[in-house]
Amino acid sequence: MPVLAALTMNPVTAAKRSVLSLAGAAFKRSLASAVSSPLAAHHYPVTPGSLTAHLKLKSGETFTGGSFGAPVSTVGETVFTTSLVGYPESMTDPSYRGQLLVFTQPLIGNYGVPGRARDGFGLLSHFESEKIQCRGIIVGDYATKYSHWNAVESLSEWCEREGIPAITGVDTRALVHILRGQGSTLGSLSVGGEKACDAIEWVDPNVDNLVAQASTDSVRVFNPNGDVNIALIDCGAKYNIIRSLCAQGARVSLVPWNHNIVAELDSYDGIFISNGPGSPTHCIETIDQLRQAFDVYQRPIFGICMGNQLMGLAAGLNAYKLRFGNRGHNQPAVDLTTGKCVITSQNHGYALDDSVMPSGWDRFYVNANDGSNEGIRHLEKPFRSVQFHPEAKGGPLDTAYLFAEFVDQVRAMKATGVAATTAGYNSVPVDAAKQQQSATA
Ligand SMILES: NC(=O)CC[C@H](N)C(=O)O
């Protein structure tokens, strides 16, 4: 809507509608104050009569729009993704747990939501977990009509059914401008009365161990007849990681994030560490397990995203929080072993500080945009990890070869009789080791 028209609009209607003027230079000049101005508007609530929704950042900016999800209120870390497609996959990716997800792609919902068909491994074919994991979604322009051969419901119906609030009519360009400037920020999404968001308590989801919430409670086996047995440490694994390993012919034992794998190393031909939500620093048990495994395990270990961070922490690196993270499907990463650049799918807010590498380790990939770490590798042992998502879903399949390389290596080492652990290894369960440590402390 032209800004002038918005300014001459009935102020009550305008106040209900939206918040931002996009008037060129004025946009940049007065961004901070314009955000909370109720005067200008260029988007509409999704349908006449739909509930008003508000997104309020902890830093004070408020965006008003229309609700198209569940009529509930929530708080989360407001993060944005630049992906153009893949909202069903992103919203069910456990790594988005605790977050309010902003889509920079303005038109969202136009291909609806697919059904819950399962593949031959028992995994949902079109989702990355059983349910929506993000706390809410924020879009510029929700498409009220959808069309796709496998859609069974609208994005609005899905959100409502799963109790997830959703807001449309938000100037996501202005919102992302703020988030890029000040970094990922706590936000409240409230539906209903104008003041609903004032009642919200600001609780940062990252203070909790979100991995413990997302992980499986018990061991689950996929593709039981696979010829090599992979322990997949579940920090909140996306289904396509499990599927990608199974599709290579591997048997996958999905184990809880704090499972005592050190006591079972001999039964695994390879170890894989999944993606997962929140800060890696909460996963002390996993880091402890990996540190012990690095000393004695001789077969391949591979990590993805949270898995890269946990392997890095176990190797002796530190992790830090990125200002606004890298979330999208077109992030360039350079393989430092070949110089080749690959386009990758990403979703992370933390990164390894790889400025000084621990002895025996090297950088594997680096982000070609911001220079942040995209992976590490051991120089002698078959241990590697990547910060991006070779399993895609959504995103490009450029790096799917990493699954084939991993399982091929696992298979080759098994065939040539490489023992799982070094000779003389004393398999002390981690809990017992911890007790010993505290007893001698
Ligand atoms: N996708 C992931 O595994 C994300 C890892 C971690 N939660 C981060 O945000 O950096």
Automatic annotation (TrEMBL):
Gene Ontology molecular function: any one: carbamoyl-phosphate synthase (glutamine-hydrolyzing) activity
Database matches in PROSITE patterns: GATASE_TYPE_1 (PS51273)
Transmembrane segments annotated in the record for this chain: none
Enzyme class: ligase
GO process terms (BP): 'de novo' pyrimidine nucleobase biosynthetic process; glutamine metabolic process
Annotated ranges, domain Carbamoyl-phosphate synthase small subunit N-terminal: 51-190
Key words, A-Z: ATP-binding, Glutamine amidotransferase, Ligase, Nucleotide-binding
Signal peptide per UniProt: none
InterPro entries for the chain: Anth_synth/Amidotransfase, CarbamoylP_synth_ssu, CarbamoylP_synth_ssu_N, CarbP_synth_ssu_N_sf, Class_I_gatase-like, CPSase_GATase1, GATASE
SMART domains noted in UniProt: CPSase_sm_chain
The protein's annotated pathway: Amino-acid biosynthesis; L-arginine biosynthesis; carbamoyl phosphate from bicarbonate: step 1/1
Gene3D superfamilies hit by this protein: 3.40.50.880, Carbamoyl-phosphate synthase small subunit, N-terminal domain
EC annotation from Swiss-Prot or TrEMBL: 6.3.5.5
One Pfam short name: CPSase_sm_chain
Known catalytic reactions: L-glutamine + H2O = L-glutamate + NH4(+); hydrogencarbonate + L-glutamine + 2 ATP + H2O = carbamoyl phosphate + L-glutamate + 2 ADP + phosphate + 2 H(+)
Family: Belongs to the CarA family.
Matches recorded under HAMAP family: CPSase_S_chain
Subunit structure: Heterodimer composed of 2 chains; the small (or glutamine) chain promotes the hydrolysis of glutamine to ammonia, which is used by the large (or ammonia) chain to synthesize carbamoyl phosphate.
Name of the molecule in the record: Carbamoyl phosphate synthase arginine-specific small chain
